[in-house]
């Protein structure tokens, strides 16, 4: 159910785009994201900072798209969000010496510090690359291709990255889910 809630706005954006075009889809994405945040707030009582950030970015870039009647702004939205997430991981690590990936996942899994650091850098690089890839697709293909990439390509690459990450992490785990004592980063 959580996965459906997480992808609710992008799925509605995709459907609305196919039926009515980019401007209606942008409005639908804004409303769907507001509804998503409201649902999370009332269901769980807490909205994560990244979810607030996502709402702010869609309202800002979606609003600019609608006001200017230019699809350029909405095409930049995923890149800005990816770069903000990657930037947060980078700044957290370099300036604050805090590994936000470990903060998010540390309660579920125990890993050696060097593995957490590699994981943080991997996510930072992934988000940076996804931002660049989004812009490349946005500026080298038509809007329909970009929308298809946004849903299927972006989610597919994220899934592949998570699976690769899980395979990497499995090398550092014992069967009971604890850290392998002799794990090498």
Q: Can you put this structure into words, describing what you see?
A:
This protein has about 180 residues and is mostly helical. It has 2 domains: about 1-60, no CATH class; about 70-185, no CATH class. Helices cover about 80% and strands about 0% of the residues. The chain is built from 7 helices and no strands. It is globular. It starts with a helix and ends in a 15-residue tail after the last helix. The relative contact order is 0.10.
Short description, anyone?
The chain is an all-alpha fold. It has seven helices and no strands.
Mean pLDDT: 92
Rg to the nearest angstrom?
Answer: 18 Å
Continuous helix count: 7
Percent helix among the residues? over 70%
Pattern of helices and strands: HHHHHHH
Work out the number of β strands.
0
Morphology call:
globular
In the predicted model, the low-confidence regions spanning at least 5 consecutive residues are none
The secondary-structure class comes to: mainly alpha
Tally of separate domains: 2
Give the distance, in angstroms, between the N- and C-terminal Cα atoms: 34 Å
Largest sheet: none
Determine the strand fraction and express it as a percent band: under 5%
């Amino acid at each position: 159910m959580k996965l459906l809630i997480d992808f609710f706005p992008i799925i509605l954006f995709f459907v609305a785009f196919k039926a009515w075009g980019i401007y209606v889809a942008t409005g639908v994405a804004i409303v769907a994201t507001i509804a998503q945040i409201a649902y999370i707030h009332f269901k769980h009582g807490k909205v994560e900072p990244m979810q607030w950030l996502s709402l702010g970015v869609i309202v800002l870039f979606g609003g600019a798209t609608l006001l200017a009647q230019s699809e350029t702004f909405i095409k930049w939205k995923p890149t800005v969000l990816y770069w903000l997430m990657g930037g947060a991981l980078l700044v957290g690590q370099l300036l604050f010496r805090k590994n936000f990936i470990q903060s998010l996942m540390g309660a579920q899994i125990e890993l050696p510090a060097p593995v957490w650091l590699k994981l943080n850098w991997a996510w930072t690089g992934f988000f940076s690359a996804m931002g660049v890839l989004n812009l490349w697709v946005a500026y080298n293909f038509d809007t329909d291709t970009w929308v298809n990439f946004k849903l299927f390509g972006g989610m597919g690459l994220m899934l592949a990255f998570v699976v690769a990450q899980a395979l990497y992490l499995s090398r550092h785990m014992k069967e009971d889910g604890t850290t392998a004592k002799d794990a090498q980063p």
